[in-house]
Amino acid sequence: DAKTTQPTSMDCAEGRAANLPCNHSTISGNEYVYWYRQIHSQGPQYIIHGLKNNETNEMASLIITEDRKSSTLILPHATLRDTAVYYCIVRPSTGTASKLTFGTGTRLQVTL
Amino acid sequence: EAGVVQSPRYKIIEKKQPVAFWCNPISGHNTLYWYRQNLGQGPELLIRYENEEAVDDSQLPKDRFSAERLKGVDSTLKIQPAELGDSAVYLCASSWTGGAYEQYFGPGTRLTVT
């Protein structure tokens, strides 16, 4: 699986957009970009995933560059409850269900 | 819909003692995963089941760890004997089978070995 690089930590003011970057320069053609987050003392929670088109759901938007070597997760209006560790994961899309290879993620702190 | 259920939530044991963790996946999810998460790190896969079959256990320390998934639903992860380095959060996750479906995680069991 391709390796990802994320900043260790970020801060965001409540109500503002949180933009979390991820580099995955070795991503291959059949690999999706997944985002999970982990709130303190909870298990990881799925947020969104995409292949090459931008994606949006009720939680967030995912912007993938045209060369697919990087992506950005956008939380449009961050709240205190969005404080968590955010993991960017690259994962094959075909074949049997595959494991998630987590890095250390980005610790997002949302402040008043 | 009920999520992934794990018990116990917390466990404190002395080294060399046995310990077991239980997981009940989301109804209908045939794939079940056990992960271990050390402090400050992301989760790492220990074992993956497709129904009753362990299809990826390459990261499971087989000298002291064992797992089972009888009838392809609930699963138990056991450590015997526990070592100080086994202190971690043990997470269970489940997903649909086939393709790269998203995984749903339980709250985890925090194990402390003293």
TL;DR?
Chain A is an all-beta fold. Chain A has no helices and nine strands.
Helix/strand layout:
The complex is a heterodimer of chains A (112) and B (114).
Chain A (H helix, E strand, L loop, with lengths): L8 E5 L4 E6 L7 E8 L6 E6 L4 E2 L4 E4 L5 E6 L8 E9 L13 E6 L1
Parallel strand pairs in A: 1-9
Antiparallel strand pairs in A: 2-7, 3-4, 3-8, 5-6, 6-7, 8-9
Chain B lengths: L4 E3 L2 E4 L5 E6 L6 E7 L6 E7 L2 E4 L8 E4 L6 E5 L8 E8 L8 E2 L3 E5 L1
Parallel strand pairs in B: 2-11
Antiparallel strand pairs in B: 1-3, 3-8, 4-5, 4-9, 5-6, 7-8, 9-10, 9-11
Largest interface: A-B, 24 and 29 residues
By DSSP, the count of extended strands of chain B is 11
SSE ordering of chain B: EEEEEEEEEEE
Low-pLDDT residue spans of chain A: none
* Mean pLDDT rating of chain A: 92
Q: What percentage of the residues of chain A does DSSP assign to strands (E)?
A: over 45%
Q: Structural class from helices and strands of chain A?
A: mainly beta
Radius of gyration of chain B: 13 Å
Span from first to last CA of chain B?
Answer: 37 Å
User: What is the 3D shape of chain A?
Assistant: globular
Sequence of strands across the biggest β-sheet of chain A = 1-9-8-3-4
Tell me which oligomeric state these chains represent. heterodimer
Tally of contiguous helical segments of chain B: 0
* SSE series of chain A: EEEEEEEEE
Please mark out the parts of chain B with pLDDT under 50 across 5 or more consecutive residues, or reply none. Answer: none
Tell me roughly what share of residues is in helical segments of chain A: under 10%
Tell me the overall shape of chain B.
globular
Mean pLDDT of chain B: 94
Tell me the span between the first and last alpha carbons of chain A: 38 Å
